[in-house]
Fold Serine/threonine protein kinase.
Amino acid sequence: MLNADAWQRLSELFHRATQLPESERIGFIHSQTGDDPELQRELLALLAADTDPTRLHGPLREAVKVAARASEAEVMPGTRFGPWAVERMIGSGGMGRVYLARRADGAYERQVALKLVRATALDQRRHPHFEYECRLLAQMQHPAIAQIHDAGIDDDGRAWLVMEYIHGQPISAWCDQNLLGLRQRVELLVKAGEGVQHAHQKGVIHRDLKPGNILVAAVDGQPLPKIIDFGIAMDAAAAEQAPGGGTPGYMSPEQARPGNETDARSDVYSLGALLYELACGAAPDDPVVPPSRHLQAQPLPRQRELAALRGSTPARLRRALRDGIDAIALKALQPERAARYASVSSLLDDLRRWLAHYPPHAAGQVGWLGVRTFVRRNRLAVAAASAVVVALVAGLAATTWSLREARQEAARARVTSEFLASVLDSVDPAVSQDLDKTLMLRVLDDASQRAARELAAYPDIRADVELIVAVNQANLEEYDRAIAHLQSIRALAAAHPDRLEFQGLRAMQVLGHAYLSSDQLKLADATFAEGIVRAQRAGAAHRWMALDMQSRRAWVLFVQGRVDEAMRLAREAFDGLSRQLPADDQARLDAAKRYAEILATSGDQARAMELLAEVIRHQTVLHGREHPLTLSARRDLAVARLQKRDFAGAEPELRQLAATYARLYGADNGLAVNTLGMLGSALREQGKVKEAGPYYRATMEWNATRYGADSFSAVITRHNHANWLLADGQAVASEQEQRALLEIADRTLGRDHHVTAEILRGLAEAVLAQGRADEALRHANESLRVMRQVYGDKNEAVLRDVRDTLAKVEAAAQAKTGAR
């Protein structure tokens, strides 16, 4: 038997010999091994068996043939294979059985997967080849490949292989269970493909890539794929059906043809089949149709199910597939090897191009695909400038044209206003709010002026256009402009009470929102209160509008600190909308979200999280996992986790949300920045104080710059930073910040406000840290008084933190008194 050094020498000579023409190999072998007959015999035997360019499956195929004729009893727990002891069987196939095992010699604790090859009659001549192949497999070192630990043959001639035990799920099942979007699925496949590429560089081809051989598990909150069964993936049944190994649906056509050699392009085909399934939920049929066409051929309920599993809608998913994935999958799945990608590297390059919003090479002449991918790469600039302006001007031009037509004028104008609404409502305010708004505001102003001039004969359509303009001005945070337009709509509705009843109510709804967003809380409250009365008088048709404005008013009251009243109104509004509207209606979902936020802040996080999970489910089905409405609900759920003190649970979701916001809107966007501020809280509460600091500072500075030092958001984020200062040991700096914040809060929010109470509690903590227990006691008592005023004396969840602070301060004060 060869020793370890000889095996290494054999491996090197074998690789060198296979690079030579067959006519030169014998001379090479004699020149290199003339002084070592055993080494020479083994090298000659390996070359004789090397009928497969992968250099892996020859001897193992012999074992498969034996396995097809032989059956073996299951190995009992405790059976030893080298230093490994079997615990229990975890899988079985034609090639053999797989057992969970551990080191029996106590060298270290590690669970492993031990594969026992069904080869009791394995020819002694084949044993060295099996060992050589296992050594070759063990050379592969890559994060996406399950590591080989050991191999051997026992006294009964049974070949065994020990590999890393992966406690994961097949890649397709993992993606579905975790509702991964199409992009996330492709990113995961790229990671697995990098492992395949590494194996090819080592001269190893897998030949049986399928979901069950790529297992995914979460490592540090991130999915990590692991490829298993390199070189020993065939089972006996498949081997009989497919001489080249593989699994039907995933194996290349050449693998199913007797006598046809396989190469790296067979794995390219299998990766293409995996991409196909991850994209549209099924392995490719013969003949292969594009994934988007396969999806479209499914019944509509199945389309919706598949799209929801990918955080999308059928139309959006089909569009994403047509924008590159179709072309990549079809090229990888070409029946003839020469027409496929030449290597896994080329396939991965096209997938990375698609992920970066570039047309894949497989798409050929890009045409409109190039335009669409350009827009995605540059969506910050394009979304709020060229695309919106062109669409808006085109919509207004169409409006003018329609009004000049003598026939069907009203119908044409209605269609045009609906088109205009769809164009502008599709603009994500999170994208547009951080851009230069001059051009878009100019277009909106022009739209309003032209509507007044050219739609004078159609007051209802003019009101629709004015509402569209006002909503988008509010989205751009131009609240004064929006309020002026909304007041003009109310005047127009008052002049045409019979025709513009709905537009008048809608204007009050948006007006109240504009007042709330611009911190004009009293005006917001009055507007919603008036709107509720008007909607109730309007009859049953507008009952939902009254409930919607009641839900919005509840939030205004909550921000003002009127928690009990806010809770009652929010609950009544949500219950009423739940009786009137379908479960996926947007008004009902919005009301559920507001109610959940009030519940969470008031201490009922369990009910809040239940509601938010339902909202997320519906928003994902309606719009996709990365739509602004879905992301907002996901963020609220993370906040509820923070309020429940589940900081470790909130951290990974906040990290993912922050990364998503940054990717979609840019790192300096308010959503990205403020989510990082929440992440800072999750980290600080887990003791990761230093890591949290930069997030707190960045969030505080961004909100002060954007909204002003006295704004509600600036006060909140500055207070969070002051708390971090204390956690970081900077008690004096924390006290100074809390005092400055208390002055602002008393002036802008009033003393009896829950935010003021939190600042008082923070001040008490900072003062106590400096040893001034008596002063800290005054601040803590005042904080508890305010909290009781706002929430009542029975809300233990809300009062818990301030009572904890008070107890700590009282203990310090008593200790100080006792010391005297």
